[in-house]
Amino acid sequence: MKKNLLLLLIIAFFSILVLAACGTSDDTDNTNGGSDAEETEGDSEEATEETEDEEAVSDDEVYQIGATQIVEHPSLDAAYEGFQAAIADAGLEAEYDFQSAQNDQNNASTIANNFVADGVDLIFANSTPSAQSSLQATSDIPILFTSVTDAVESGLVEALDEPGENITGVLDLHPDSVLTTVEFVDNYFEGATIGLIYSAGEANSVAQIEAVKEAVEGTSLSTAEATIGNSSEVQQATNSLVGEADVFYIITDNTVVSALEAVVAVAEEQGIPLIVGEPESVKRGGFATFGIDYHTIGYRTGEMAVEVLTGKKTTADIPVEAPPSMQLFINKEAAEAQGVEWNEDWDEDAEFLETVEEE
Fold this sequence. Notes:
Number of domains: 2
Strand content: 15-25%
Shape: elongated
Number of strands: 12
Largest sheet: 5 strands, parallel
CATH superfamily of the largest domain: Response regulator
Strand order of the largest sheet: 2-1-3-4-5
CATH class of the largest domain: Alpha Beta
CATH architecture of the largest domain: 3-Layer(aba) Sandwich
Structural class: alpha/beta
Radius of gyration: 36 Å
CATH topology of the largest domain: Rossmann fold
Number of helices: 13
Oligomer: single chain
């Protein structure tokens, strides 16, 4: 009897040990299971954070911008610098492919076609010929132009307030600039013959020359013209007007402006006042202009480009703009060199610029 009782006690003891061991094993398994779940959740959170970081980097887009310019001279260069400044100030990253056509329309077409083949995000067309070539090359890639005098007459847009589906920009001529310049000459150089030198191949120039002729009607003034085909002909064309022209008026003709020093030399040698189309040309030896700042119009064009690149607007939503204001700029040093009789009115009316020698 006692043996049987002892045997039962031993069996019961071992059963308790077995149950305890199983309980411990289950607790351990449950504990480990909880740890694995937490680790999995932690790994998932880290993966999500990494994905978000990658997405943030991919949103930091670097825009590819093709910049085409008919020729390099200080006014156009200032517009391009203004355009780049606006893009940078907006916090956008951009890579620029700058191409100068070297004053050759065929080159301008090739440049535009290459930009299209490269699939740039936007084309900055700096001058009328560059804008025309770009528009002929693409109807899809946005084109933002500046340094264009008459966007309608040159066929870039049908109306200033209704630009094309892929083109808009900022003009480089204030609506009253030519008229005001002619009035200035009529007031201070009464009876003068205005010598006009321009490229007949630039629509931009032809439009301005027609505006000058129209403004001269009914004044004491008359005009004399000399046309050129390239910049190497500028000096000869200028000399051809000596003896006929009392005042030179160089409009914003890219070909002539690129060789402005040749006109300045003749103006100083012959004592003929040189009126120019923009302030940069005053810095290069022109006597006076009712002009606009090219850096400013380039900057405004860049602001338009930012709206297009970021998807806030399309070019069709942005009307073509004219410069908001103009100013009389005078170079006193040039005035003296060209034999200009000083008028005290200019002391109050003008902003004075000094000649800047090209490096």
